UniProtKB/TrEMBL annotation:
It comes from the Bacteria. This is Streptomycin 3'-kinase. It comes from Ensifer adhaerens (Sinorhizobium morelense). The keyword Transferase applies. Keywords: Transferase. Its EC number is 2.7.1.87.
Length: 249
């Protein structure tokens, strides 16, 4: 199978390990995921362990341990809501790590530069855009983000944490019996950033699973309560939700 990155993913016969295989063009990004997994070891965050690493002229292969469970994306809305508090706590544990010790940067300035590059190459993936955004020129979407850039940079400087970078439902693993989070996967975008970069993606992606507004509101309340945020900043949520689709390409 292949992931969003285009890497090929193979599951070992016994189910206890996976191999990610990247082309030469993506070898550096795969090595970045390896480095992030190694950095996370021993820090109380439930992520795969690095088993092996191979690099050659035509690409690279990362072998990692499997996290038991099923992706949160596979759960019913009721089961996801039951699993949600443990997912929030796991994200909170990641956000609580010492940013001064994290060597990986996913801050707003380089992410905006990445978005500008993707838009400049006309490489925005329309699958990541809302229906309204698909009808809007990508240059206009970027300009809308840029108008808020100064204030969001100031907020990031005051509230920077270690972010997962892509905390969507396929990247949370859940024990289907206990409905507790068993870990997080795909940490290739991990780095220090505004916590709202994670919160925007997690709440928006989960929205595809809820069957009613009450579930979405309950999940949002649980998430922010777990992270000690009494008054969510809806403007920041919206900003990062508009920025993220422009950075994939």
């Amino acid at each position: 199978m292949t992931g969003e990155s285009g890497d090929f993913v193979y599951r070992r016969g016994d189910g206890h390990a996976y191999a990610k295989v990247a082309t030469a063009l993506r070898s550096e990004e795969l090595s970045g995921e390896r480095d992030r997994l190694l950095w996370l070891q021993g820090k109380g965050i439930l992520v795969p362990e690095v088993i092996d690493w191979h690099v050659a002229e035509d690409g690279a292969c990362l072998v990692i341990s499997a996290i038991e469970g099923v992706p949160a994306a596979a759960l019913s809305a009721a089961d996801l809501l039951q699993a949600w508090p443990s997912m929030a706590r796991q994200l909170g544990a990641l956000h609580a790590l010492d940013t001064g010790q994290c060597p990986f940067d996913r801050s707003l300035a380089p992410m905006f530069a990445r978005a500008a590059d993707v838009v400049g190459r006309n490489a925005v993936n329309p699958d990541f855009l809302s229906d309204d955004e698909r009808q809007t020129p990508a240059t206009d979407l970027l300009a809308r983000v840029e108008r808020e850039l100064a204030v969001r940079l100031e907020q990031e400087a005051r509230d920077r944490v270690v972010c997962h970078g892509d905390p969507c439902m396929p990247n949370f693993m859940i024990d289907p019996q206990t409905l507790r989070c068993t870990g997080m996967i795909d940490v290739g975008r991990l780095g220090t950033a505004d916590r709202y970069a994670d919160l925007a993606l997690m709440t928006a992606n989960a929205g595809e699973s809820w069957t009613g507004l009450d579930q979405a509101q309950r999940a949002t309340a649980i998430l922010f309560e777990a992270l000690g945020i009494t008054v969510p900043d809806l403007g920041r949520l919206d900003f990062y939700l508009r920025l993220d689709p422009l950075t994939w390409g």
